[in-house]
Design a protein that fits this description.
The complex is a heterodimer of chains A (274) and B (268). By secondary structure, chain A is an alpha/beta fold. Chain A has one domain: 3-Layer(aba) Sandwich (Rossmann fold), CATH 3.40.50.300. Chain A is 41% helix and 22% strand. In chain A, strands 6-7-8-3-9-10 form a six-stranded mixed β-sheet, with helices on both faces. In chain A, strands 2-1-4-5 form a four-stranded antiparallel β-sheet, covered by helices on one side. Chain A is globular. Chain B is mainly α and 268 residues long. Chain B has one domain. Chain B is 84% helix and 0% strand. Chain B has nine helices and no strands. The longest helix of chain B is centred in the middle third of the chain and has 40 residues. Classes of the chains: A alpha/beta (274), B mainly alpha (268). Chains A and B meet through helix 3 and helix 4 of A and helix 5 of B.
Chain lengths: 274, 268
């Protein structure tokens, strides 16, 4: 009873003290994060910060070394496979490279979860597939194969597939990576539109600041496997933490020391370097 | 400090044991989900995909297997005849070809052909699905990659390899018949009667058992190599090569095992 209560009122996703290591190297170090129902959480961080690893943990592709991940009141670590399978139906994932099945048409890609997990008649599945494609603006592209789509269209088709079972939680891995700014902005609007229309909880991993500020309700910033800060975009923007400032103001990590270069030239001219 | 011999042997042993373990686990999972690929009782999408695989693995391989079998039949008959002629025992070429193909060459030639054609294709297909995150996408859609990708291939190979083996054996034996007709004027009817006389049920059973075992090896090694791909597209190419090398190697190892068992058990 208490668990059912929590499932309805508690956070949609709750990450507790999660530790992940690859080959003895800690990729996530006691990470904590709560994502409320209906909010858009943007996970920020540089390359190797562990943000993609955290995402893979949340969507259940990998298990943490220690710690706990609870989604809709269901603990991923201790639940039965049957329960987890059902839980997966309520999580839609749009992958960085779209991950559309190249052997199927766009339509069949979007229809796949419906065909596999529901007993709807084929005519209904076709209609629902068309609707999902129409939502992302690909109503006419259903018959094409994924190779025939542009980068932006592929991402949108992946979104259509991710929402085909009407999930409560929608997860995006680098939605605007590899897209030009206009198509990237279109995708941001699509995410906002979906959230408004279906009231979904949205989790986005990105390092594109403009996109993050457009879509986020709250942001979480990871640095070298640790959670640096979680807060609203205003809170993060006004933060004085040097790492957060560095990320927001685009300051490179190591600025070449001109003194060292000068010294090297000096020695070279004097004939020492050889 | 470079690792000592003991360390290197230990690492290699653990790696190989890990590989065998992974292969065994995948085999167990596949047996569990094989039923889902069956027609009527299983999932119709898997069965559809299994039929496509049967066409790709079996029907498309038929011309190549047929030509290989005819060539091998001629080779075996010619090599046998050149030796047996010296003892005036040319008629034994019939037994040589018949027994050689049913017990050994039929299953082995088919296994090598299929491992080269389809084993590498399996690993390349699955490997590229790993690289493009399609396998991850399957998992997030609550679809088991072993059931979705491997089970139809396994079912297809289990059906198709025995069929190909029978076709191969028939082609090889017929080629022997053509050779005997050309060289010794043995009538074709006489040849076929001699073939039927020297063919025993035990050999045919062994032939089919071997082909089922080889099908298992080729599919599981091919798919495991695919699932283990990490990194970029170059890893997919390496996995396809590894699939052919390892499955051919394991097919021959298994062949030795089976032949030894039948030899010791049969006594003949």
């Amino acid at each position: 009873m208490a668990q059912a209560q929590e499932a309805r009122t508690g956070p949609a996703i709750s990450v507790r003290d999660v530790v992940v290591s690859y080959n003895g190297r800690r990729v996530l170090d006691k990470v904590n994060l709560d994502i409320a129902r209906g909010e858009t959480m943007v996970l920020l961080g540089g390359s190797g910060s562990g943000k993609s690893t955290l995402l893979r943990q949340i969507i259940g592709l990998e298990r943490p070394e220690s710690g706990q991940i609870v989604i809709n009141g269901i603990d991923l670590g201790s639940s039965k496979p049957r329960v987890l399978k059902k839980l997966r139906h309520s999580i839609g994932v749009a992958f960085q490279n779209s991950a559309l099945f190249n052997s199927m048409s766009v339509e069949d890609n979007v229809a796949l979860p419906l065909r596999e997990h529901t007993r709807l008649p084929e005519s209904t599945i076709r209609l629902m597939t068309w609707l999902k494609l129409a939502v992302v603006g690909l109503a006419d592209a259903g018959k094409l194969s994924p190779q025939e789509l542009s980068g932006g269209m592929k991402k949108r088709a992946a979104v259509a597939r991710a929402i085909s079972l009407d999930p409560e939680i929608l997860v995006f891995d680098e939605p605007s990576a590899g897209l030009d700014p206009i198509v990237g902005a279109e995708l941001d609007e699509l995410i906002l539109g979906l959230k408004r229309a279906f009231n979904m909880t949205v989790v986005v991993v990105t390092h594109e600041m403009a996109s993050a500020f457009r879509i986020a309700d709250r942001m979480a910033m990871l640095y070298k496997g640790s959670m640096l800060a979680v807060g609203t975009k205003e809170e993060l923007q006004s933060s004085t933490h040097p790492r957060i400032r560095q990320f927001f103001d685009r300051i490179p990590d190591q600025i070449a020391d001109t003194g060292v270069i000068d010294g090297y030239f000096q020695r070279y001219l004097e004939g020492d370097a050889a | 400090m470079s690792p000592s011999v003991v360390e290197r042997v230990g690492t290699a042993t653990l790696r190989h044991l890990g590989y065998v373990g992974a292969l065994t686990m995948q085999f167990g999972n596949a047996l569990g989900s094989l039923g889902r690929a069956l027609p009527l009782v299983g999932n119709r999408h898997r069965w559809k995909s299994a039929v496509q695989q049967m066409l790709a693995v079996g029907v498309d391989a038929l011309p190549m297997v047929g030509i290989m079998a005819v060539c091998a039949g001629f080779i075996l008959a010619m090599q046998g005849a050149s030796e047996l002629r010296r003892f005036g025992a040319l008629d034994f070429v019939v037994d040589l070809v018949t027994i050689g193909f049913t017990r050994e060459l039929g299953p082995l030639l088919v296994a090598i052909a299929v491992s080269g054609r389809s084993g590498s294709a399996f690993s390349a297909e699955i490997g590229s699905m790993v690289v493009t995150e399609e396998i991850d996408a399957l998992k997030t859609m609550a679809l088991d990659p072993v059931e979705f990708v491997l089970a139809p291939k396994y079912l297809a190979a289990l059906v198709v390899l025995p069929c190909l083996t029978i076709a191969c054996t028939v082609c090889g034996i017929l080629a022997g018949g053509v050779f005997m007709r050309l060289v010794t004027d043995m009538a074709f009817g006489v040849y076929i009667r001699a073939v039927v006389h020297s063919m025993v049920l035990r050999d045919v059973v062994m032939c089919l058992v071997k082909s089922l075992a080889f099908a298992t090896i080729i599919v599981h090694v091919g798919c495991l190599e695919g699932f283990r791909v990490r990194g970029g597209p170059d890893a997919v190419g390496r996995s396809a090569t590894a699939a052919v090398v390892k499955s051919t190697f394991l097919v021959i190892l298994a062949d030795v095992g089976f032949t030894a068992i039948f030899y010791l058990a049969g006594g003949k």
